[in-house]
Design goal:
Strand content: 15-25%
Largest sheet: 4 strands, antiparallel
Number of strands: 10
Structural class: alpha+beta
Distance between the termini: 52 Å
Number of helices: 12
Number of domains: 3
Length: 400
Amino acid sequence: MNGLFARQAFTGFGPSLLASADETLPMASVRGTRPGRLRAGVRLECPRLPGVYGMLNEAGELIYVGKAKCLRSRLLSYFRTKSRDPKAGRILKNTCVVAWEPAHGEFAALLRELELIRRWRPRFNVQGQPNRRRRTYVCVGREPAAYVFLSPRPPGTAFACFGPVPAGFHAHEAMRRLNDWFRLRDCSQSQKMIFADQGDLFPILRPAGCMRHEINACLGPCAAACTRGDYSLAVRAAIRFLEGRDAGPLEALERDMQEAAAAQAFERAALLRDKWQALHWLSGHLERLRLACRRSCVYPAVGRDGTRDHWHLIHNGSVHAMAPAPRDAAGRAAAAMALANVYDGAASAPPGPEEIDGVLLVAAWFRRHGAEKEKALEPAAARLVCGSNSPFHLRVAGVQ
């Protein structure tokens, strides 16, 4: 036992969440106490196919999962002592069993790799591990005077949630600059809020709870310096910026920065630059995520034999199911049922913490393979393919 709890013994990669229930995924493995024996087994038995592979230690623990366009070439690269990276050497040093599983194509191997990392949590894997990469959500809420704050999970009381974005200094700095720009409070919930239109019986001079109101960085809802309506307008303006519908803050900051630099007011220009960079960082992350989450399509990825033999059903940026490309009446009926299960009645919602890695994986794939975007079908077009015997429609679907 390593650590407080023993890791789960490896008995096989397990079923795929995307494949159909009746599809079996063949796994093969070679065992050896020395790298030379492992290499001989890989050279003899490993196929030249895309897929995923795993490394097991002497205790039967899965310590690493990877994917490959060609399993044989990738696994043999671990044994090249002069060209492999140091991490590969450390993995091989702890390996007694090498297992592999062919996939329908490179894209399917990427999805399977992420699934297996999340299921088994191998100690040598970094990317894809749950909770290994910290992310946080940008939230707007908390009555009676809402403001922008960060939360590891979207709270049910928030008016709106955006993200997630990488947690850390940049996220906290963006929240500070965002609240300052829209003059929203950022104090604790214990601070009492008194709006100007609440109507006290006797006028009372109320001091602000902090100096942000004095430096014009807060509307001062704690000091009755604004009405509830004025404050709500500022909150809605912040939401428009986070939704990507208003780039006014970035444009104003950039314009003021250029004017300050032209007037040789370099300290002011540097201050404006810092504000602009924080808001631009946040806006860029949210925009990339919005574009990724808008992707809903049927992607016929290239399979092992070079044809597009499988459909990947993508909704809200992540792959929800995989089905064989329709080749006959039974295949069209099965594909139509898969389309209905994924797209009928499916609501658009921001990705949760468990889904974001899949969304980013799909976005990265289409970013690296720009031409593949043209191969994707709209769900409505895929339904036409399933309901037509036309050779034209079959060609569109990638069926030869």
